[in-house]
Amino acid sequence: MAISLKLNGETREVEAEPGTPLLWVLRDELQLTGTKFGCGVASCGACTVHLDGQPVRSCQTYIDDVEGAEVTTIEAMADTKIGAAVQQAWVELDVVQCGYCQSGQIMSAVGLLAENPKPSTSEIDDYMHGNACRCAAYQRIRAGIQRASEILEA
Length: 154
What we know:
Low-confidence stretches: none
Shape: globular
Radius of gyration: 15 Å
Structural class: alpha+beta
Order of helices and strands: EEHEEEHHHH
Keywords: 2Fe-2S, Iron, Iron-sulfur, Metal-binding, Oxidoreductase
Distance between the termini: 47 Å
Number of domains: 2
CATH architecture of the largest domain: Orthogonal Bundle
Protein name: Isoquinoline 1-oxidoreductase alpha subunit
Mean pLDDT: 96
Domain 2Fe-2S ferredoxin-type: 1-77
GO molecular function, one term: metal ion binding
């Protein structure tokens, strides 16, 4: 089945069976491997992408549900004001440890800052709650979000 979607600002046509997770279309069909497979049940956040500007878990978002939608992946984050600020903060503060979860962490952080440009510590923790980090870099991730907020405010 042919599906048309706007992916990272470009209209794309993909062939996929109904019910195929968006994650597999991104990784296997479109070779966008920045979005990671973590758990497959939308519990860890490693596969987070933006669907019409909102963070979603691509492992549980099906290709037939994104017809005509706008999908943004980590590959396009540096091209956005908030994404660039988050990535700058991540580098400045050396947030990443193993890095596996970081694309999902960044995608969620961008979603948070788009909704709330100056979140409190508890608001960050609440919003980011569904993103797991096996290295337990949560304090560094929180600091990165706070720093990104400062960069955006400047």
